[in-house]
Amino acid sequence: MNPSANSPAALARPVGPAPAVGGRRPWIDHWLETVRDLQDLKDSHPMMDAVIDEIDGRMIRIGDHWLADFASCNYLGFDLDAEIIEAVPEYLRTWGTHPSWSRLLGSPALYEEIEERLTDLLGCEDTLLLPTITHIHMSVIPLLAASGTVFMDARAHKTIYDGCQVARARGAAVKRFRFEDPDHLDELLRAERDPTRLVVMDGVNSMTGNAPDIRAFAAVAREHGALLYVDDAHGFGIVGERTPDETSPYGSRGNSVIRHAGESYDNVVLVGGFSKAYSSLLAFVACPTDVKELLKVAAPPYLYSGPSPVASLATVLAGFDVNERRGDQLRATVYRHTRRILDRLTCHGVLTPNRSGFPIIEVPLRDHRRIADVGRFLFDRGVYVTLAAFPLVPKHEVGFRFQVTAANTDAEVDAAIAGIDALAERGELRLITDDLPAAGPAV
Ligand SMILES: Cc1ncc(COP(=O)(O)O)c(C=O)c1O
Q1: Residue whose CA is at the smallest distance from ligand 1 atom 7
Q2: Model pTM greater than 0.90?
Q3: Which whole-number Å values give the CA distances from 29 to 43, 265, 388, 394, in the listed order?
């Protein structure tokens, strides 16, 4: 689930930790009340907090119920790829299961190999690997922000928001610019006196499935001497550089949103992860070498955190090979499946924020109170989706989300489409013509 920074859950504040009185824990009661809708859904709904008993390809079994999974972010299907799975045991025999040094203390040579290949794939100056994007945001945003000003996308991912909160606690100021609005960023930067400026935002957005206008944001950031920091968790592996022979509008090679936009890395720091398209626990910062060297001594996860398991380093390396040989075919499959779902929504006049054709398709409901019933309806028809419930998203965006992967079959996409048909017929889905607030709230 990907709550945005301005969701009510993100903005809610506890009244302050209070001691237990007579067995009551008021701070827990306060939080439970704040997230009551989600808590009720979690307790009652088979698509929340579910235990997956078994998988068969992209089919999953929960209890005795088999469902087509559209909630996984394994976009390229590398989690199930025989070539990648078969590559792992040799690495385990050579390196053991887990390095267990922090990277500063000892990095298996696999890290160097991955950084080299990744730098080449992205076409950037250098890269640094850390276990997760969350580790990166929490440590790198405060370092880059120093005591300057951070300009944060109003709908930035919660983990970016949390990184900004740490930066604020260390003396930075944090200002928000309107989602997808480079002109508003320009306005704020123009009025700014602080010479240290960091702009933080998402690449391919985890809720809308769209990419920002990277060229416009990069131009504004450069004009005002700001560093642009982009989290492309969902774009890396899917979108890439444009080529005449590309197999889909995603572009080629899956080398992320900066290359997809034809942008350079001047004044741009790109953050991405392998935990989605590459199905591996690892993440990266693409940055100049002097910044990398600084991070090696100043970013706590490099110094103190446990590393990624060897199996994850192995699946990244094997994943690079598969990406090179078959990645563009896999991306074409992802696009074809995604297109079928999007076309069906269009056929019914159903609203989705997805304008890009990228494989994240959010479908808002007409009535947010129907979320549990709609989820149950899809569950009963064997379709597993991500429920986007209040307070993770504002009430007018409550709905469900398909994430489409190369490992989904045509029959699974048929099941998703049958679910859409039935829900559209029952009038559960918001239509393009409905007179309701548009997705993407202002600051
Ligand atoms: C945009 C975005 N950033 C960061 C994360 C967190 O990534 P990680 O699991 O590598 O910390 C997610 C996970 O869903 C995400 O969607």
Answers
A1: 133
A2: yes
A3: 16, 47, 23, 22
